[in-house]
C-alpha cells in the first residue's frame, strides 16, 4: 500500500490523534529543537533565530562557576538518598499494613498516610513554616524553648536542610509508594504462606523468604526508573519548602531551581539553557543505560 | 488497596488459613500503635495550621504555634473577608482552569490513546514512539518557556494556566491505551464496522461508554494536577488579576501585602495600626482557605485514586 493510500484508509483515526499530536509537537518537540539556544548568545533585539552562535561558551561559563558543582552534587545526593530510603520505608509499611488484623483500621491508616501526597508544594511550604518559623514556629517555641534550648534560625542555616528536605519528601510521598507496594504484597499467592506455615516459619522468616523475593522485581524496576531520572529534582520540594531563602541555596539549590532562577530572576538565557541541556542530555543517556540494565534483568519490565 | 483487599485470596475464600497465619495480638497492638503515631505525624502540621488560623494573633506572638489555640479568635478570617473579592477571583480562576483543562485533557488523552490501541491502525508504531520519546527526553525549561512566551505569547492569559505542560500527560495516554486494548474487544468494533458505523461514531457510541471507569480515573489525575498547579503561574503570570488560588497562597506567604486590605491599611494608617495586622494568623487562614477543598474532597476521591494506581502495568 502506498503512503497516500494508507493515510486515506486511516484518515479518521489520524484525525482523532491530531489534537494530541499537535500538542506534543508544540509542548515537547519545539522545545527539543529549541535546545540549540544553549549554543547561542541570545539577543532579543535581533530575535532568537538570528542571534549569533557561540559554540560551547555558555557551557564553559556554567562549569567555571562553583554553582555547577553545587547543583549537581545536591541533585544527585538528594535523589540518591530518596531512591534508597523510599523502598525501605514503603516496603516496611506495606508489609506491616498487610498484617494489621482489622482491615478497616489498615484502610484508614493507608488513607491518612496518602493524604500529604495530594497537598500542593505551596501548602507544604506553609506547613513547614508553621513548624520551623524562627519566631513563632512550633519547634522553636513549643519544643526547644521548654527544653531550655536556643531558638534555631531554620530558614537561614543551610546545615539543617539535608535532614529537613528528606523528611518532608518522605512525609509527602511515602503514602504513594506504600500503595504501590501494598498492592504487590496483597497480590502474592497465599499458597506460599500456607506452605511456610506448615514448615513452622515465623512471620519474620516469611517476610524475608517469601514477601521480599516476591516483590523484588517491582522494587528493582521502580528503583532503576528513579535512577534514570536522578538528575531531575522535585522543583516544588526544593523551591517552595525552603521558601526560596537565599541563605539556604548551598544545600537547597538543585539543577531545576537553578535553571528557573537563572532564567526568570536573572534573565540569563545562556547560562540557564546550558544547565537545562546538560540536565536533559545526561538524563537521556542515563535513561538509556538504565533501560539496558532493566532489559538484562527482566525483559518485560523494560521501557523499550 | 480497597479493591485489591477484597479480591485478596485470603480475604474471603480461606479465612481459616489467614487466621492461623495472623500475627499475635501483642504484635498486632504494636503495629497499630505505630501506625496511629505515624498518622498523627501526617496530620500534625495540618492541624497546627488550622489551630493557628483560629488563634488570637497576640497568643501566637507570645507562645508560638500550638496544637490547640490558647486564645480562640476568628479575626484572621474576618480580615480575609476584606479580600473576599480577590479570593473569589482566585477560586474562580482555579475552578475554571481545572474544569476546562481536565475535560480537554481527558478528551485529548482518549482520542490519542484509542488509535494506538487499534492493531489495524497503520501509523501505530510512529505515533507510539512520538509520545513515548517525550517521556525520556525533553528540551528543558528554557526553550519550553520561550516557545510559549515568544512564539505563542501566552503570558498572563488563561491559556498559560491550561496548556503548557498540563494538558496531556503521556503516562496517562499509555495507561488509557492499555485499558482500551484489554477491555474493548476487536469483535465489538468489527461488528460495528459491518453495521456501517464510522470511526468517530464507534469511538463516541461504543468505546467511550465502555471506558467510563478509566475516564473517571484519568479525569481525577488531571483535576488534581490542575487544581494543585502553581508552577505555570510562577512562570507565566505577572498580572495580579490572573492569580489562581495556589499562586495566591504563594504570594501571600512571600508578602502579606499581596492581600489588598493589608496594602490599603498599611498606606492609609499609621505604623501603630500596621503592627496590629494579624500577620501570622491571616497567613495560616489563607492556607486553610486554599487547602480546604482538597482535604474536604479527599475522603471521597482517594479510593478511586488508589484503584487507578493499582490498575496494572503500563508499557511503552
TrEMBL record, chain B:
<comment type="similarity">
    <text>Belongs to the binding-protein-dependent transport system permease family.</text>
</comment>
<feature type="domain" description="ABC transmembrane type-1">
    <location>
        <begin position="91"/>
        <end position="290"/>
    </location>
</feature>
<keyword id="KW-1003">Cell membrane</keyword>
<feature type="transmembrane region" description="Helical">
    <location>
        <begin position="282"/>
        <end position="301"/>
    </location>
</feature>
<keyword id="KW-1133">Transmembrane helix</keyword>
<feature type="transmembrane region" description="Helical">
    <location>
        <begin position="158"/>
        <end position="180"/>
    </location>
</feature>
<dbReference type="GO" id="GO:0005886">
    <property type="term" value="C:plasma membrane"/>
</dbReference>
<feature type="transmembrane region" description="Helical">
    <location>
        <begin position="29"/>
        <end position="50"/>
    </location>
</feature>
<keyword id="KW-0813">Transport</keyword>
<feature type="transmembrane region" description="Helical">
    <location>
        <begin position="202"/>
        <end position="227"/>
    </location>
</feature>
<protein>
    <submittedName>
        <fullName>Carbohydrate ABC transporter permease</fullName>
    </submittedName>
</protein>
<dbReference type="InterPro" id="IPR035906">
    <property type="entry name" value="MetI-like_sf"/>
</dbReference>
<keyword id="KW-0812">Transmembrane</keyword>
<feature type="transmembrane region" description="Helical">
    <location>
        <begin position="62"/>
        <end position="80"/>
    </location>
</feature>
<keyword id="KW-0472">Membrane</keyword>
<dbReference type="InterPro" id="IPR000515">
    <property type="entry name" value="MetI-like"/>
</dbReference>
<feature type="transmembrane region" description="Helical">
    <location>
        <begin position="92"/>
        <end position="114"/>
    </location>
</feature>
<feature type="transmembrane region" description="Helical">
    <location>
        <begin position="126"/>
        <end position="146"/>
    </location>
</feature>
<dbReference type="GO" id="GO:0055085">
    <property type="term" value="P:transmembrane transport"/>
</dbReference>
<dbReference type="Pfam" id="PF00528">
    <property type="entry name" value="BPD_transp_1"/>
</dbReference>
Amino acid at each position: 500500500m502506498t503512503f497516500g493510500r494508507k493515510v486515506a484508509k486511516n484518515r479518521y483515526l489520524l484525525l482523532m490523534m491530531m489534537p494530541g499530536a499537535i500538542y506534543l509537537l508544540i509542548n515537547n518537540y519545539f522545545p527539543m529543537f529549541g535546545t540549540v539556544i544553549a549554543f547561542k548568545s541570545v539577543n532579543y533585539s535581533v530575535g532568537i533565530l538570528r542571534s549569533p552562535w557561540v559554540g560551547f561558551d555558555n557551557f564553559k561559563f556554567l562549569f567555571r562557576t562553583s554553582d555547577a558543582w553545587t547543583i549537581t552534587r545536591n541533585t544527585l545526593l538528594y535523589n540518591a538518598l530518596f531512591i534508597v530510603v523510599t523502598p525501605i520505608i514503603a516496603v516496611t509499611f506495606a508489609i506491616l499494613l498487610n498484617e494489621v488484623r482489622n482491615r478497616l483500621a489498615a484502610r484508614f491508616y493507608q488513607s491518612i498516610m496518602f493524604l500529604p501526597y495530594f497537598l500542593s508544594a505551596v501548602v507544604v511550604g506553609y506547613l513547614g513554616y508553621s513548624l520551623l518559623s524562627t519566631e513563632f514556629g512550633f519547634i522553636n517555641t513549643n519544643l526547644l524553648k521548654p527544653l531550655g534550648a536556643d531558638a534555631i534560625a531554620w530558614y537561614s542555616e543551610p546545615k539543617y536542610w539535608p535532614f529537613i528536605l528528606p523528611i518532608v519528601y518522605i512525609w509527602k510521598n511515602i503514602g504513594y509508594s506504600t500503595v504501590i507496594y501494598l498492592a504487590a504484597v496483597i497480590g502474592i499467592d497465599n499458597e506460599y504462606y500456607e506452605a511456610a506455615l506448615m514448615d513452622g516459619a515465623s512471620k519474620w522468616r516469611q517476610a524475608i523468604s517469601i514477601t521480599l523475593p516476591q516483590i523484588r522485581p517491582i522494587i528493582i524496576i521502580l528503583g532503576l526508573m528513579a535512577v534514570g531520572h536522578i538528575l531531575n529534582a522535585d522543583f516544588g520540594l526544593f523551591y517552595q519548602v525552603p521558601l526560596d531563602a537565599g541563605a539556604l541555596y548551598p544545600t537547597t539549590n538543585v539543577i531545576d531551581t537553578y535553571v528557573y532562577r537563572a532564567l526568570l530572576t536573572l534573565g540569563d538565557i545562556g547560562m540557564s539553557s546550558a544547565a537545562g541541556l546538560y540536565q536533559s542530555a545526561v538524563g537521556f543517556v542515563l535513561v538509556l543505560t538504565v533501560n539496558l540494565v532493566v532489559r538484562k534483568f527482566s525483559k518485560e519490565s523494560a521501557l523499550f | 488497596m480497597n479493591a485489591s483487599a477484597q479480591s485478596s485470596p485470603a480475604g474471603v475464600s480461606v479465612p481459616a488459613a489467614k487466621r492461623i497465619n495472623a500475627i499475635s495480638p501483642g504484635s498486632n497492638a504494636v503495629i497499630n500503635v505505630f501506625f496511629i503515631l505515624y498518622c498523627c505525624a501526617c496530620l500534625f502540621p495540618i492541624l497546627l495550621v488550622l489551630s493557628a488560623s483560629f488563634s488570637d494573633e497576640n497568643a501566637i506572638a507570645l507562645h508560638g504555634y500550638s496544637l490547640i489555640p490558647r486564645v480562640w479568635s476568628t479575626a484572621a478570617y474576618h480580615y480575609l473577608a476584606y479580600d473576599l473579592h480577590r479570593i473569589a477571583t482566585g477560586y474562580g480562576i482555579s475552578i475554571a482552569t481545572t474544569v476546562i483543562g481536565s475535560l480537554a485533557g481527558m478528551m485529548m488523552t482518549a482520542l490519542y490513546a484509542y488509535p494506538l490501541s487499534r492493531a489495524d491502525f497503520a501509523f501505530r508504531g510512529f505515533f507510539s514512539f512520538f509520545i513515548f520519546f517525550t517521556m525520556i527526553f525533553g528540551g528543558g525549561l528554557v526553550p519550553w518557556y520561550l516557545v510559549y512566551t515568544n512564539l505563542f505569547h501566552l503570558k498572563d492569559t488563561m491559556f498559560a494556566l491550561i496548556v503548557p505542560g498540563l494538558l496531556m500527560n503521556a503516562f496517562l495516554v499509555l495507561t488509557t491505551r492499555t485499558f482500551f486494548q484489554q477491555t474493548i474487544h476487536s469483535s465489538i468494533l468489527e461488528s460495528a464496522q459491518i453495521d456501517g458505523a464510522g470511526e468517530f461514531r464507534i469511538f463516541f457510541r461504543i468505546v467511550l461508554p465502555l471506558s467510563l471507569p478509566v475516564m473517571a480515573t484519568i479525569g481525577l489525575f488531571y483535576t488534581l494536577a490542575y487544581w494543585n498547579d502553581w508552577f505555570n503561574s510562577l512562570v507565566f503570570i505577572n498580572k495580579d488579576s490572573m492569580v489562581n488560588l495556589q499562586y495566591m497562597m504563594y504570594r501571600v506567604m512571600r508578602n502579606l501585602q499581596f492581600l489588598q486590605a493589608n496594602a490599603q491599611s498599611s498606606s492609609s494608617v499609621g505604623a501603630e495600626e500596621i503592627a496590629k495586622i494579624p500577620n501570622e494568623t491571616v497567613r495560616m487562614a489563607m492556607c486553610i482557605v486554599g487547602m480546604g477543598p482538597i482535604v474536604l474532597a479527599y475522603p471521597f476521591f482517594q479510593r478511586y485514586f488508589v484503584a487507578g494506581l493499582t490498575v496494572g502495568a503500563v508499557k511503552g
